[in-house]
Write a structure and sequence with these properties.
65% helix; 2 domains; Arc Repressor Mutant, subunit A; elongated; mainly alpha; Rhopdopsin 7-helix transmembrane proteins
Length: 395
């Protein structure tokens, strides 16, 4: 007895192509799972789960094109195994984003409500299995011979679920970005471009689903949906490869103390009212303290400088420091510190240090974390690149 007698798989153009993508997803899911367990990277575990769910999502069509729906035994397997966990994909995506941005994030009891629809669907799948296989003599739920995972109501509600979590993930990331520019001096270094690419890829998957709902609404029939699953598989491969290469670099440079508990900057802080001279004097007083701290201590040279550290040094709270910088300097904390760093670089250029050191080493000495951030901040401050500034001023 050979393997073909045990497992039936019709290799053709459609089943073989999807098999390649399925195998790729399974490999990267395993690699991410291993990394997550070995290095205690929770975000790797969530991404592994997302990619695993993506690989299962392909299965009904990969195996369907391989002839499983037309073979006894195999058909029952396809019917009763809920491969497409549409109510799980969205929450896993969302919690991957949260864990990636905040390495201290932990699931609490309230978070489990996000998994309730998936649990209900799993119970429904078990009821269908027990009814058709153990109670009734013949198929009752599957009398129509159509896979329940491909029912229109499930596909549509699954799509709405994923759209909901895509929006929530984007909102969470947007709030994170707003907090980061007010809290740290290295916001550009923790922008997580990978999250942008990941959400774009996930968004494209959902856009394609909408298009195929319109072009081919009969989801109970295979029809032309192969092209959707091919596009889905390509995007899943991109997420797998790019996500695996980016997980090493993420969430280690910004140790956020639970994003949800991070105290927001309050608008009612007792300083800065333009109609009260005494508050204007307070603003000026704090402005002088901050300016002196930067000029005498050169604290901008600390590449990991945060708003809370400034507040501690000046024996006050972060709300006051943030409000002074916002109102007196008309910029956020990240831009304020990077401007001070750019000014320090300019001073070194005027002293001729670029003649014996590289521009990057000078930038690093002044507190910049990367060449990209340095160039962006320098041009924002002077409207010139560092090299253009040197040429223009004949330094």
């Amino acid at each position: 007895m050979n393997l073909e007698d045990i497992i039936i798989f019709s290799y053709n153009e459609k089943s073989s192509v999807l098999l390649v993508f399925f195998f790729n997803a399974m490999v990267f899911s395993y690699l991410l799972l291993k990394r997550g367990l070995d290095e205690n990277q929770k975000h790797s575990l969530w991404l592994a789960a997302f990619i695993l769910l993506g690989s299962w999502y392909i299965c009904p069509f990969m195996l369907g094109y391989a002839g499983w729906y037309s073979e006894d035994g195999y058909r029952e397997f396809m019917f009763f195994v809920p491969f497409q966990q549409l109510f799980l994909i969205g929450p896993v995506f969302f919690f991957y984003i949260k864990t990636l941005l905040n390495k201290d994030f932990k699931l609490n009891r309230r978070d489990f409500i996000h998994f309730l629809p998936a649990i209900i669907y799993m119970v429904y799948s078990i009821i269908v299995f027990v009814g058709d296989m153990l109670i009734f003599d013949a198929f009752y739920f599957y009398a129509d011979g159509e896979d329940k995972d491909l029912d229109f109501w499930y596909q549509m509600t699954g799509l709405l679920s994923m759209l909901y979590y895509l929006i929530n993930g984007l909102v969470y990331y947007w709030n994170y970005r707003k907090i980061s520019v007010e809290e740290v001096s290295f916001a550009d270094e923790i922008a997580f471009k990978w999250i942008k690419y990941f959400t774009i890829a996930f968004g494209l998957i959902l856009v394609l689903r909408v298009l195929f709902f319109i072009l081919n609404p009969e989801w109970g029939e295979f029809g032309s949906k192969y092209w959707y699953y091919l596009c889905f598989s390509i995007l899943l491969m991109y997420i797998s490869i790019t996500g695996y290469s980016n997980t090493v670099k993420t969430s280690m440079r910004f140790d956020a103390n639970d994003l949800e508990k991070l105290e927001p900057i309050r608008a009612d802080e007792n300083i800065g009212s333009k109609n009260e001279p005494e508050n204007t004097l307070i603003l000026d007083e704090w402005n002088n303290k901050i300016t002196k701290l930067f000029e005498k201590e050169n604290i901008y040279e600390n590449p990991n400088l945060t708003l809370s550290q400034i507040a501690t040094l000046l024996h006050t709270n972060r709300n006051i420091i943030s409000k002074v910088i916002n109102q007196k300097f008309k910029m956020n904390f990240n831009d304020f510190v990077n401007e001070k760093r750019a000014e320090a670089v300019i001073q070194k250029l005027q002293n001729g240090e670029h003649l014996k050191n590289t521009l990057l080493s000078i930038a690093m000495d002044c507190g910049f974390n990367s060449k990209t951030t340095f160039n962006r901040a320098f041009k924002k401050h002077t409207a010139l690149t560092p090299k253009q500034y040197i040429l223009k001023n004949k330094l």
